[in-house]
Amino acid sequence: MELNKLDVEILKEVAGIEGVPSGAVNIRKDGEAIIRSSSSGIKISSHPEHGGLIVEIKPGIRNEKVHVPVILTKPGFRDKVYNTFIVGEEAEATIIAGCGIHNESHSESRHDGIHEIIVKKGAHLKYVEKHYGQGKSQGKKVLNPSTVIRLEAGASAELEMVQIRGVDDTCRTTVAYIGERASLKIIERLLTHGEQNAESNIDIYIEGSKGSAQVLSRSVAQDSSRQLFKASLTGKAACFGHVECDAIIMDNAKIKAIPALIAEDADAVLTHEAAIGKIAGEQLIKLMSLGLTEKEAIETILNGFLR
Amino acid sequence: MELNKLDVEILKEVAGIEGVPSGAVNIRKDGEAIIRSSSSGIKISSHPEHGGLIVEIKPGIRNEKVHVPVILTKPGFRDKVYNTFIVGEEAEATIIAGCGIHNESHSESRHDGIHEIIVKKGAHLKYVEKHYGQGKSQGKKVLNPSTVIRLEAGASAELEMVQIRGVDDTCRTTVAYIGERASLKIIERLLTHGEQNAESNIDIYIEGSKGSAQVLSRSVAQDSSRQLFKASLTGKAACFGHVECDAIIMDNAKIKAIPALIAEDADAVLTHEAAIGKIAGEQLIKLMSLGLTEKEAIETILNGFLR
């Protein structure tokens, strides 16, 4: 199937690609895989039960990428998909997921992406997921990603989860189980505006000795938007965990941040930091004295904060 | 009524007094006021409905103290009391509360102290509450303090809430409403050991412009004890709030810390820090190299941490 102009535009936003990328790729559009190809190191096949994907990254491969973006352009379309990603032992790979919705209708468009990720012994994964919505109509753009990730002994993973503009409603769920000497880093960036709602629930269980986890969340709430951020970190062994959430609140927005530290082992070290506040006045004045308008200065500060 | 040796011993632990102090005082023993006297600036009377106290601190007075300790010595006694404290406009006073339980029986002894505190315009209150249990039997010592505090415009209050050894079960509830330019500081110190359970719930609502709140919690969980710390900070105006909880976990103890920051105004600045971990190894080694045994070194570090 050919990609039209709109498809190309959305794919650029959510996956940073111009047209169809080389290597392993699966592009899902309005509930169907319109483009799929495996590579020598990465096999993409259909999930036998749920109609989603199984992405298998071969043990020991290095520096390979797989793109699995999803686009929704059919008005009022609802898509639910189950994908499984298996990163083989000692492999090193990057998964670029993400979802973009274009909706000009009056009905809600919605994508529920249910991901299971297994990072085998000694493997390293980088996982990038961007969410984006466009279209000026009343029809909502809803994105509910759900991710369960398991890290085996000595594995490591970095998840970068970003919500750019245009998503009216999101309920993000991330659950992680961390084995011995395994380490996980989650970076979350979220921007809400208008009347948008965003909820993020992160639950991390550090089960193995010398396991570690780090959550870095930054968000901006503009206009009358609402954000709820929950992150729970459970240490069941000698481990290290840190959660950091910083939020900028503007206009009539409301933000709730509810982290939880749960130490179930005397050798668990868990820490947390959070701050909610407005843009620093001095920063604004400095940029405006350099010739920027107030609006430009605010945008510059927010871009820096969410980068 | 005369104080016996045991009464004197418990009063010293929970209120730092030797016998009956001068000034305004109410000593409650096993459900009854055994000693009561008002002072020129502080009037103590019976609560018309609930049989507890009404403590009225006159407007404008300076540097006055009132002692209202509670002791339970009757085996398996259950005591519930409602007290109201009113700090008059521009007054400056210290309230020393606290409860000690001696229980050598096989039945549970329990005190539920329900306190309402109103700090009027421009007044300043220091409130100290210590909890302590003793007795080697199976009978539990249970203390459930519940405090609602309201700070009017320009008022300030510092609450120091300490649980020393010996309390088997506690569920502490503190709710605060903070007015314009008013400021509240809560200092909590908690030690649990054996099979003890401790839960602390703090809910703070900063309602007035330029209001501020600060919660500093430090706790130590030893043996197989359990602690749950919840602190929720809601900013409804241009305000500043900070919650800090540090905990030392030892042996087979378990600790949960669940703070919540809720910003409902774009000019609310709310921050939080938490850390759960064990005693730093270097600190221990340093003290032991100075001649302390391991046990003495641990005690020295814990005393410093909870001071």
TrEMBL record, chains A, B:
Alphabetized InterPro entries for the sequence: Fe-S_cluster_assembly_SufBD, SUF_FeS_clus_asmbl_SufBD_core, SUF_FeS_clus_asmbl_SufBD_sf
SUPFAM superfamilies: Stabilizer of iron transporter SufD
One BP term from GO: iron-sulfur cluster assembly
Pfam families (UniProt xref): SUFBD_core (PF01458)
Superkingdom per UniProt: Bacteria
Domain SUF system FeS cluster assembly SufBD core: 85-305
Similarity remark: Belongs to the iron-sulfur cluster assembly SufBD family.
Name of the featured protein: Uncharacterized protein family (UPF0051)
Species the sequence originates in: Thermosyntropha lipolytica DSM 11003
